[in-house]
Write a structure and sequence with these properties.
This protein has a single domain, classed as Alpha-Beta Barrel (TIM Barrel). The protein has 10 helices and 8 strands. By secondary structure, it is an alpha/beta fold. Helix content is 38%, strand content 15%. It starts with a helix and ends in an 8-residue tail after the last helix. Helix 6 packs parallel to helix 7.
Amino acid sequence: MPDSVATLPTIDTHAHVFHRRLALAPGRRYAPDYDAPLELYLQLLDRNGMSHGVLVQPSFLGTDNSYLVESVKVAGGRLRGIAVVDPGISMGELRVLDRAGIVGIRLNLVGQPLPDLAAPEWRGLLAAAKSMGWQVEVQRNASDLAALVPQLLDHGVTVVLDHYALPDPKLGVADPGFQSVLKLAASRNAWVKISAPYRNGAAGESFAHQAYPLLRDAYGVDRLLWGSDWPHTQFEARQSYDSNRHFLDTLIVDEDERALLLASPHSLFRF
């Protein structure tokens, strides 16, 4: 392994922390009945040889990012955050989040109407994200990404797609939406998370083995991101941090390639 790669961080780019005393968002689709505390997450990073992590605001907490911000601050530079915000948020509020270690916004659009990105509040939010160098992380089924992502890219923002871009589990890599995601690589401003294969149906691991080489050939290793998806909400009974980290070793058997993938997000997340 080249020294330049070996000395870079190893980054888990997708995890959540929360506890049951936090106020839940109205209209949520799901709420956990357990705690996923920061202290435990940091222990899991240590146990699995991960130097840094990225906390993503869970949908059931809505736009109250206070626990996310507190956790990033407590970790003292080891973590970054991806927030969920109202599109009408002020530039001043965004700058406060930026100083606290937030590096992007999340659009969790599963089961939600697609936003009108031409609306003034969305144009303003995306312009602010671009000016601060923030990313826009999107969780949405692949069939809708072909139309949505180019609109985001037209605003000049970096786009990150969650969980292999969520193709139709019945179609897998043959899903026309997934094929469209491969073509989006040409923009050079999109990234894909190879995270949570179990969210792509019962054959998720088999799908991941088919999808990874296609994504690697289209995007390059340096624009793919690994995430643990801890604590694997709604899949807690069958998933663990350790098993997901081990799966990465079976997915990318070449040690240097795997090291590069784990290290390459350091600039995207400002580590």
